[in-house]
Specification:
By secondary structure, this protein is α/β, with parallel strands linked by helices. It is 40% helix and 16% strand. The chain has a domain of 247 residues: Rossmann fold, CATH 3.40.50.720. It has eleven helices and 15 strands. Strands 3-2-1-4-5-6-13 form a seven-stranded parallel β-sheet, sandwiched between helices. Strands 7-10 form a two-stranded parallel sheet. Strands 8-15 form a two-stranded parallel ribbon. Helix 1 crosses helix 8 and helix 9 crosses helix 11. It comes from Lachnoanaerobaculum orale. Pfam families: Epimerase. InterPro entries: Epimerase_deHydtase, NAD(P)-bd_dom_sf.
Length: 363
């Protein structure tokens, strides 16, 4: 296992995308478990999906912050593509650790709305990298660790499973995947040129309470409740490595405290202090099995009636553009370096989602 080389106590942590699904859960976990931290959150609160869910997440953060007054929480509404704002935030708050989770997500949306991905995932991430670079100006200590979200989408239609960070990922099948691969390349270049310790995390199909409504489990629930037909792609033969949000957050937390070591090569120039890890459950689930467990837990939670005719509300259809038949994370490196492997079962995770859904929508 790698040894922790960053202490979060009494440090300022910048979390972009802080009202997002993963970001909000990370902020709450840090406030609960990490004493004496100063957390700055940035989010543009866009309407890609229901803003009321983002507002609810922020309310939950405020509650947790109120219960843990030995730490500081500050929220800034803004876009990471706004260079002036990012430079001002870095200048004023001087974050020691940066966790970049702000991004335009979604494979299918990237096919019809590419501008949003270039703005947030390319320009926005470039602004973060530049701010990290200049945090060292005039001999300052600067950013000790940049942790950023990548995605399992970078593996594209890779036929070798499980997906390893050693695999070549040069054939993205969506613009979203291409922007995430670009993030990894940009981070590597900045690590090499400016000695910025950076770690990219390839997330595998994250789900859980207060998740993104564009994700399958959430969209299926909405449609079933409305009596609509749900479409199961690739005739149900797709497999996904579903990863519960608490496991993702635990992985991020551990990675934050272990920055890649700065060292020089034989040429006297920095060896890039750069790393990439998969965070996934390493247990791909067949989509038909997944929707069966989902409907069972929705019935159990009282979201759907006990006599719900599930069979008449599903339809098997062909593969969608940008989709891949399987995602499967090789997490050996994560286990070796951090002693951690996601463990939440799909049934337990979907049960918690169903219970949240019933409460949030007051069913």
């Amino acid at each position: 296992m790698k040894i922790e080389n960053i202490t979060l106590k009494n440090k300022t942590i910048l979390v972009t995308g802080s009202s997002g699904f993963i970001g909000s859960n990370l902020v709450m976990e840090l406030l609960k478990k990490q004493p004496c931290v100063n957390i700055i959150g940035i989010d543009n609160m866009n309407d890609y999906y229901d803003v009321s869910i983002k507002e609810w997440r922020l309310e939950q953060i405020e509650k947790v912050a109120g219960e843990h007054r030995n730490s500081v929480w500050k929220f800034i509404k803004g876009n990471i593509a706004d260079k002036e704002l990012i430079d001002r935030v870095f200048s004023e708050y001087k974050p020691a650790v940066v966790v970049n989770l702000a991004a335009q997500a979604g494979v299918r949306y990237s096919i019809t709305n590419p501008d949003a991905y270039i703005e947030s995932n390319i320009i926005g991430f470039y602004n973060i990298l530049e701010a990290c670079r200049h945090s060292y100006d005039d001999g300052k200590i600067g950013v000790e660790h940049l942790v950023y979200a990548s995605s399992s989408s970078v593996y594209g239609s890779n036929e070798k499973v499980p997906y390893s960070t050693e695999d070549k990922v040069d054939n993205p099948v969506s613009l979203y995947a291409a922007t995430k691969k670009s993030n990894e390349l940009l981070a590597h270049a900045y690590s090499k040129l400016y000695n910025i310790p950076s770690t990219g995390l390839r997330f595998f199909t994250v789900y859980g309470p207060a998740g993104r409504p564009d994700m399958a489990y959430f969209g299926f629930t909405n449609k079933l409740l409305e009596g609509k037909i749900i479409e199961i792609f690739n005739y149900g033969n797709c497999k996904r490595d579903f990863t519960y949000v608490d496991d993702i957050v635990e992985g991020i937390k551990r990675v934050m405290e272990v920055a890649p070591e700065k060292q020089n090569g034989n040429d006297g120039l920095p060896i890039p202090p750069y790393a990439i890890y998969n965070i996934g459950n390493s247990k791909p689930e067949n989509l038909l099995e997944f929707v069966d467990i989902l409907q069972q837990e929705l019935v159990s939670a009282g979201v759907l009636p006990k006599d719900y005719d599930f069979e008449s509300h599903k339809k098997l259809v062909s593969m969608q553009p940008g989709d891949v038949p399987i995602t499967f994370a090789d997490t050996k490196a994560l286990e070796k370096d951090f002693g951690f492997k996601p463990y939440t079962s799909l049934r337990d995770g979907l049960r918690k989602f169903a219970q949240w859904y019933k409460e949030f929508y007051k069913i």
